[in-house]
Amino acid sequence: MKFMKSEILLSLIGLSAVASAEKPNIVLINADDLGIGILGCYGQEIIETPHIDLLAAEGMKFNNYYGGVLCAPSRWTLLTGMHDGRQGGWDFTGGGLLMKMDKEKVPEPEYTNRLNEFVETKSTPIPEQEVFLAQVAQQAGYKTAQYGKLDSGFLTNHDRITRFGWDEYVGYYSHNRAHGFYPPYLWKNGKKLPLAGNTRIDCGKMSEKGDEPVGSGGETYSQHIFIEELLSFIRENKDNPFFIYHSTQLPHGPVAIPELHPDYAEREGWSLAEKKYASMVRMLDDHVGLIMAELKTLGLADNTLFVFTSDNGHELYYGPKWTFPKKRPGGEDANLTDKKWRTSECGDIFDGAGGRAGLKRAAYQGGMQCPLIVRWPGHIQPGSETDLLSAHYDFMATMAEILEVDLPEGKDSISYLPTLLSQPQEKQHDYIIVNNGFQRMGRTALIGNDGWKLVEVDRDTEDFQLYNISEDNEERHDLAAKHPEKVSNLKAILLRELDSLRPDLVLQ
After folding, report:
1. Residues 430-485: tens digit of each pLDDT
2. Predicted structure pTM score
3. Is 127 helix (H, G, I), strand (E, B) or coil?
4. What is the DSSP letter of 24?
5. Within its chain, how far is the Cα of 342 from the centroid?
6. Selecting from 3.40.30.120, 1.10.3720.10, 3.20.20.120, 3.40.720.10, what CATH number does the domain 24-325+341-506 have?
7. What does the alpha-carbon distance between residue 324 and residue 279 come to, in Å, rounded to a whole number?
8. Dist CA 507 CA 84 (whole Å)
């Protein structure tokens, strides 16, 4: 294999820079329900995403990267460095308590006491020895901050957020409240942050039709607060290393936006919901641009690792919904959990899943394959791409290696820093697991490093599907009948990993 002199030089510079230069600031943006096909750099042709596309042009784009199939397991696996099939992992804590107390007008300190008691008694306990993503950065002397959706299981509180390693934060404690973009208040470092002009207990949540007038819901849009607070944090910490995690609501629905983007406001043939959705994606892209502009103004852009990804696959908040056949081809009753449904064939004008099968909550590629873009000038070759099999839980090991701190023992996380530096990736996953905890609901999968993927549709009926995604990423050809031995082997691994013990806790 031949290498250009410039490639060799870049690789050597990258390696030496990591070893000797000042450690980079880190900005991690985790978009909400953003399908991989919505970004221009991954094939989107209608909605423009110039700032995110520029990250890819100046950095590396991952083409075989996985999150979760919905928000809670996805965020848990990112923050713990463990795959989401592990025992005692993420859970649903119920997110309606805060709105219930708002409706009842519960006064302080009863409000906080009830919240803390609920979280303490209903959430999975956090072992003393468990180490989370932000704590890895804290060990390296970094100031950490989180903005946006603060929960990792639908409801959280100040004690759990600080236990996760966040020095500062602004956002929603409750998943349910985050479905609206006009909350009466957010939470900032343990205290309520009132938002002017917002009075609705449901935080201005719109209908699924998305046909309410633009600007409905209130006066202060949550995303404006997040970007202002985030930029302020950068300015205040420009002389100290920092790690920012922006778990944004955008472009999760129901769609709501204070004003339509001028590029989409007059588009003929578009519904109002489609215009709103495109404007939400464009706002997300604009905010990426604002962050980069601030970093450049402060002279920090060249020494910042900028990471952009999303939690799970695409979801439709502006168009057709799931449809199911009443019968399968053989005549038997259809399994309604077999959501092999493509945005490219259903009337989605944006084709948010980019031709892939399934949406959010489905174990097909459209439900779990996510974008990952990493920019780090002087270290990552501009415009590079990789097909390395990797997942959310790999970011912990990658960050630990960059910051030269120890990765906690027993983590599933594997650093992809060698790939970022155009070096041989000697340590790789044999497979990754994506699971949402409801094994009977067809949302679990194993993806092998050789391109084979097993989808668990229904365990009770022994319904497993097999695809070769290296040749068929749209999952149009189920090869299970042709390769029963491969199905058997992958099934054994998948069932072994689901509800398996946590090595990171057992080994400590």
Report:
1. 999 999 765 445 579 999 999 999 999 888 788 899 999 999 999 999 999 999 99
2. 0.93
3. coil
4. P
5. 21
6. 3.40.720.10
7. 30
8. 18
